User: Which sequence fits this backbone?
């Protein structure tokens, strides 16, 4: 039985809420949504039960990645205000339980995916978990300010997996959706890194604002936002989506770039509330949700 | 300062909390196992329908 917090000779069982928190539920919601959109935008029909099981497998895989990430980064999390309250740094859960939970959940997610859909989607899910844990968490994050640029690929897998779960093959549209999340990740995370910069510095994580400085980070946010906007609109002129998605992408990307210009062209002042950065961070989440919703809407109700 | 007041002293064992967590985990495991059985049954039926 998984245990935590030794009290003398007896140990308390881990509370299920702490195990749930280990899966990073808020991150999982975006993963589930983009995966669902990938699955729903795919051609052909998927049995609802198999679709549900596939999305559940992706959600559990993402949860397992989050748990293994928190297990590995417990020491770093303890140094940051934003993460010090998580179950491991707060001491509500012991590391061995977290590791067993993460590995067990990962194994189960792969088994469920294989049972409900196909080996191609299972392989992609397996690669995404390995990529997030070994390439991003263990290798890139503590070493390079490019961590989230390359590591962004891990978060870009869900729509691709959803599509492959439905069709058994890869197509240009899910690759473009993969690319969209990949390019969206740097401005999204660097906007966050700008207003929690001191946290990352305290933990010794080489995020872009800590290593390259604020000005460089702001310029790079703007640079990636422009490329991302081009990537977001691309499926329309390439003929993979219709006008409904196209116009949604044009309007939302224009707002995204405008907010990035505000962030890119300013400098932090004394007592700065970092409102433009917080606004960009919040909008970037809504941006991805609405854009992926538009992909599905465009597929089901083309203009 | 008594032993219990020292910062590194072990917390007193709370048996009521132990039982509460044990019960809540047992209930959760029960619900999850039933949900899994239902899900696997439903997946099997769905696959049979597809192959027919």
Assistant:
């Amino acid at each position: 039985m998984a245990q935590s917090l030794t009290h003398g000779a007896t140990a308390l069982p881990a509370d299920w809420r702490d195990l749930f928190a280990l899966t990073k539920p808020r991150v999982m919601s975006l993963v589930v949504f983009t995966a669902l959109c990938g699955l729903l935008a795919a051609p052909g029909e998927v049995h609802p039960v198999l679709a549900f099981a596939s999305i559940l497998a992706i959600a559990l895989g993402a949860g397992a990645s989050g748990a293994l990430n928190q297990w590995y980064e417990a020491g770093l999390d303890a140094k940051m205000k934003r993460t010090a309250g998580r179950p491991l740094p707060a001491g509500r859960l012991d590391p061995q339980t977290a590791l067993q939970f993460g590995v067990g959940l990962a194994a189960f997610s792969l088994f469920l995916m294989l049972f409900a859909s196909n080996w191609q989607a299972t392989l992609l899910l397996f690669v995404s978990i390995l990529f997030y844990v070994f390439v991003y968490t263990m290798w890139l994050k503590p070493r390079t300010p490019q961590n989230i640029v390359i590591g962004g690929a891990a978060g870009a897998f869900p729509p691709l997996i959803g599509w492959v779960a439905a069709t058994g093959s890869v197509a240009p549209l899910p690759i473009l959706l993969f690319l969209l999340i990949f390019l969206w990740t740097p401005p999204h995370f660097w906007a966050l890194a700008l207003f929690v910069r001191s946290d990352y510095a305290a933990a010794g994580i080489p995020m872009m604002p800590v290593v390259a400085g604020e000005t460089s980070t702001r310029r790079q946010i703007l640079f990636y936002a422009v490329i991302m906007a081009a990537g977001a609109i691309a499926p329309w002129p390439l003929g993979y989506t219709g006008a409904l998605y196209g116009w949604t992408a044009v309007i939302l990307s224009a707002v995204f770039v405008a907010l990035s210009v505000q962030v890119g062209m300013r400098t932090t002042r004394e007592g700065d509330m970092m409102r433009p950065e917080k606004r960009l961070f919040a909008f970037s989440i809504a941006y991805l949700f609405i854009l992926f919703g538009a992909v599905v809407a465009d597929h089901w109700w083309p203009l | 300062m008594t032993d219990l007041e020292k910062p590194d002293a072990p917390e007193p064992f709370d048996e009521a909390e132990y039982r509460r967590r044990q019960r809540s985990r047992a209930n959760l495991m029960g619900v999850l196992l039933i949900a899994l059985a239902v899900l696997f049954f439903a997946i099997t039926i769905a696959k049979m329908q597809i192959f027919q």
Q: What stands out?
A: The mean pLDDT of chain A is 92. The longest helix of chain A spans residues 275-300. Strands of chain A lie at 3-7, 10-13.
